[in-house]
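Can anyone check this?
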Amino acid sequence: MALRRVRGALLRLARRRPMAIIAGLALAAPAAWLEFGAGIDAWWANGLALVMGATGVALMWTGLTGLRADWVDEETEN
C-alpha cells in the first residue's frame, strides 16, 4: 500500500513541471556528490547514488520536456 502511495506522489510530481525540475535537482546534486566527491567506498552508497541520480535526471527531463501521451490516436494524426 505504501509503495502505491509513493508511486502516485511521484506521478503527481511529474505533472508539475517546475516542481519536477526542482525535485530533480534536489535528488541529482547529492547523488553526484556521493558518487564523485564524498570518497565513500560503501556498496550501499554507490547504489543509493545511482537510484537518486537516475530519478533526479528523469524528473528534470520530464520537467523540461513535458509528458507525452501514452498513445497516438490514428484518426487525429493525419
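Reply from J.R.: I decoded it. Residues 72 and 78 are 11 Å apart (CA to CA).
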